[in-house]
């Protein structure tokens, strides 16, 4: 019987450990950035993170690459890394784009949805509703994203899906501001908006799906615009 080399299996184990380390760092930093605990413009120090997570800088760097790919951190010309700023000047264009995608993906879903699509959409909505009841903003953001992504998936257009997912990901910190404006106690009427959209999709009523998605996007946009306007009024002029 041939004995196995003592080192057999170790590289794979090492890779798994590093992969789990990357995911842990990514998950923690992503949540802190989305929750605005790490404010836009805050420096990201690899050495401090390596100490904090008790690991080498390699998985730290890999996690930062993932975050950069999602637009949550930015590497500056001097190779330092900071939390990406929220560009409020481009928000009108962002709002126009995401409102359009709310409408077109919900309309497409009403045209092409299957029973399996409806089951997935409802499951994500149920998870969102539980997060709202628990006043867990990070879970609300995650499940809201999955809910709308599932609607886009049901629309059977991969280009719409890819663009919408990108917009949903870029808008996570904006959505955090939205929930903050309610002190994370989202009114039930806004949860019901999801339910009404599901009903229109199930009925394959494209006009209602379009109208409801547009109204859903509009109330989010108006609430955020109101919050930004109030913040500007409260900021003392120098």
Short recap of the structure:
The chain is 72% helix and 3% strand.
Your description of this structure?
- This protein is mainly alpha-helical and 238 residues long.
- Helix content is 72%, strand content 3%.
- A three-stranded antiparallel β-sheet has the order 1-3-2.
- Strand 2 and strand 3 form a beta hairpin.
- Helix 6 crosses helix 8 and helix 9 runs antiparallel to helix 10.
- The N and C termini lie far apart (82 Å).
Q: Determine the strand fraction and express it as a percent band.
A: under 5%
Major sheet attributes: 3 strands, antiparallel
Task: Give the helix level as a range of percent.
Answer: over 70%
List segments where confidence is low: pLDDT < 50 over at least 5 consecutive residues.
none
Structural class computed from helices and strand pairing = mainly alpha
Question: Quaternary arrangement of the chains shown?
Answer: single chain
User: What characteristic shape results from the CA principal axes?
Assistant: globular
Q: Please give the radius of gyration in angstroms.
A: 21 Å
Terminal-residue CA separation: 82 Å
Walk across the major sheet and give the strand order.
Answer: 1-3-2
Mean pLDDT: 91
Query: What is the overall number of helices?
Result: 10
Instruction: Encode the helix/strand succession as letters.
Output: HEHHEEHHHHHHH
- Overall number of strands: 3
List the topology elements.
Layout: H1 10-34, E1 43-44, H2 46-53, H3 57-69, E2 73-75, E3 81-83, H4 91-112, H5 115-134, H6 137-154, H7 158-170, H8 172-180, H9 188-202, H10 206-234
Antiparallel strand pairs: 1-3, 2-3
